[in-house]
Amino acid sequence: MGAMEPTRSRSRSALALAALLGAAGVTHFAKPKPYDAIIPRSLPGKPRTWTYASGVAEVALAAAVAAPRTRRWGGLLAAAFFAAVFPANVKMAYEYRTKSPKVRAIAYGRLPLQLPLVLWALRVRRGAS
Questions:
Q1: What are phi and psi of 44, to 5 degrees?
Q2: Contact criterion met (CB below 8 Å) for 124 and 21
Q3: Are 111 and 89 in contact (CB under 8 A)?
Q4: 47-104 pLDDT, tens per residue?
Q5: Phi, psi at residue 99, to the nearest 5°?
Q6: What is the 8-class DSSP label of residue 97?
Q7: What is the 3-state secondary structure (H, E, C) of 60-75?
Q8: What are the residue ranges spanned by the domains of the chain?
Q9: Which of the given ranges, 7-16, 26-35, 83-92, has the highest pLDDT on average?
Q10: Cα(57)–Cα(78) distance, rounded to whole angstroms?
C-alpha cells in the first residue's frame, strides 16, 4: 500500500491542477469582462476573442492534464500557458495600481503566483507515466 501512495499523490495533484484550469477556463465564458480588460492591446483582434480563446485553451489543458494518457503533454503545455499569460497579469497589476487596496492586492498577488503554477504543471508532467 505504501508503494502506491506516491502514484496516488501525483494523480491527485494532476487532478487538482486540472480542476483549477477547468474552473478558470469556465470563468472566461461566465464572466468575460474582467479578462477582456487585461488583454494586452498589442494583440490583434478583439479582446473578447482572446478571452474566449484562452478559456478554451484552459478547458482543453484541464482535459489533457486530467487524462493519464495526455498528462505529460498537458503538463508541459499548461506550464507554457501559465508563462504566456504573465504579460496580461503584469498589465492588470499596472492598471489596477490606483484601485482599492483589495483589488490591488488581487492584481499584485497574481504576479508571484505564476511561477508556482508553472512549477506545479512541470511537476505534474514529470509525475506522468
A1: -70, 155
A2: no
A3: yes
A4: 999 999 999 999 999 999 999 999 999 999 999 999 998 888 888 899 888 989 988 8
A5: -80, -175
A6: T
A7: HHHHHHHCHHHHHHHH
A8: 2-127
A9: 26-35
A10: 9
